[in-house]
Amino acid sequence: MLRKIFYVMTVFCFFLDQAEALSPSPEKAQQFISDFGARAITALTNPSITAEERQKCFAKLLDEVFDVETIGRFVLARHWKRLTEDQKKAFITMLHRMIVVNYAVRFKEFTGVVLQVKSAGSAPQGGVNVTSLITPPRSGPVKVVWKMFPSKEGAHGFKIVDVVIDSVSMSVTQRSEFSNVIQRLGDNMEAFLSDLEKRVQRVFEEQKQEK
Questions:
Q1: Which of 2, 113, 133, 201 could cross-link to 141 by cystine, CB 3.0-4.6 Å?
Q2: Which strands make up the sheet holding 142-150, listed edge to edge?
């Protein structure tokens, strides 16, 4: 009898744990974005750090709070399955570098920006959407919605999969751009990966020359 009770309790605890994982707390999600925003603004707007240090800091934050692989699968859509395993790894690496190169530099001008977390709620497709306002020093507030899912990786509990700025999804925008490039290159995935690598390297070199 004791063995049966122990078995039932074990199964109950397992399903309770799964239910908690599938039903993330909106309050925790809000705190997650609030903490992440404070860390990002403090670290990346520091005028005393170099461009290389800013990129390294941004890359670390990207690894901690964004699910780059899930984003990569989404932005490639049906083309993801056409890649070999080695190509998938190469694409995720290039996508990660592209995000760092394109966005880290923008924080240099974000000194004085204020992030206010306003609300959070369950998303129709699962996960949580956190709504915030980001206000630059000399302009009005911008509505930013952070789409995220629970994650057991690290101590933060969530991973961001999309950022929607004034109703414009960054992932959907990138998906459309990649689709156009792939179509332009004759649906050749090897050519697409080569083109992406060249474009990321070109932006990197341009930023080095601007220093």
A1: 133
A2: 114-122, 128-135, 142-150, 158-165, 168-169
* CA gap 107, 57 in Å, rounded: 11
Long-range Cβ contacts of 98-103 (<8 Å, 24+ apart): 98/196, 98/199, 98/200, 98/203, 99/62, 99/66, 99/68, 100/55, 100/58, 100/59, 100/62, 101/55, 101/200, 101/203, 101/204, 101/207, 102/203, 103/58
pLDDT by residue for the chain (211 residues), tens digit each? 434 333 333 333 333 343 344 456 888 999 999 999 999 988 888 888 888 899 999 999 999 999 999 999 999 999 999 999 999 999 999 999 999 999 888 887 777 888 999 999 988 878 899 999 999 887 889 999 999 998 876 556 899 999 999 999 999 999 999 999 999 999 999 999 999 999 999 988 877 776 5
For the record, the structure tokens of 44 come out as 């990346």
Rounded distance between C-alpha atoms, residue 95 and residue 71, angstroms: 9
Q: What is the pTM of this model?
A: 0.83
Q: Judge: domain 24-171, CATH 3.90.550.10.
A: no
